Amino acid sequence: MKHLRFYFDPISPYAALAFERLPEALKGCSYSVEYRPILFAALLHAIGQKGPAEIESKRQWTFRQVAWAARQHGIPVQVPAQHPFNPLPLLRMAWACAPAGGTPNRLTVEKIMRHVWQGAGADANAAPRLAALTQELSPQRDPASEEVKENLRTATEEALNAGVFGVPTIEVDGKLFWGQDSLDMLAAYLRGDPWFEQGDWEAAALSRPGVKRVQH
């Protein structure tokens, strides 16, 4: 059995799609999943990149592609009233639902993801909705506690140290599979596709330096 680490931030529609698709995409594979909420904005800051929603033309394409993918896979998706939004309350809620030293389970992540992306287009951070979600999840720890905040900071730092640069990313055996469209590739790896064992994985990533853009 392979152990997967699913790095996500509920702000990402691709993370929501990957989460919903995961059981079907990996059907027949032997695996366990550890869900690790991380702060996507911290990844972007660390690598000096803007998020897709911060670039208007890219934002438009992102949500068109998300709508198409959701339709193709039969996943109901409604974009929240405000996007991007501050995901910290939801990320801390996820960690607060995890036992000390553990990670949130799939049911917790499902409720948080669907709160954002299957919430009839409502504001993900609306106080009444957050209060209702808190009551439904009944977190074991205080989401505002320093312990929970440290869980989120540590998980984000560990993701960066592992080479994670975006969400969703699934890590297995030190390999990183980024994006909901990498699930088929991940499934092939779990099923023992020889491509991963004959050097192609490593060869495909060999650096080919060329022109570098100068930052001003």
Can you give a write-up of this model?
By secondary structure, the protein is an alpha+beta fold. Helix content is 46%, strand content 10%. The chain has a single domain (2-204), classed as 3-Layer(aba) Sandwich (Glutaredoxin), CATH 3.40.30. It has nine helices and four strands; from the N terminus they run βαβααααααββαα. The protein has a four-stranded mixed β-sheet, sandwiched between helices. Helix 1 (13-25) crosses helix 5 (106-117). The protein is globular and about 50 Å long. The model has no long low-confidence stretch (mean pLDDT 95).
Q: Concise description?
A:
The model has no long low-confidence stretch (mean pLDDT 95).
Question: In the residues, how many domains can be counted?
Answer: 1
The total beta strand count reads 4
Question: What is the general shape?
Answer: globular
Q: Average pLDDT, to the nearest integer?
A: 95
Tally of DSSP helical segments: 9
Question: Could you tell me the strand content as a percent range?
Answer: 5-15%
Instruction: Compute the separation of the termini in Å.
Output: 49 Å
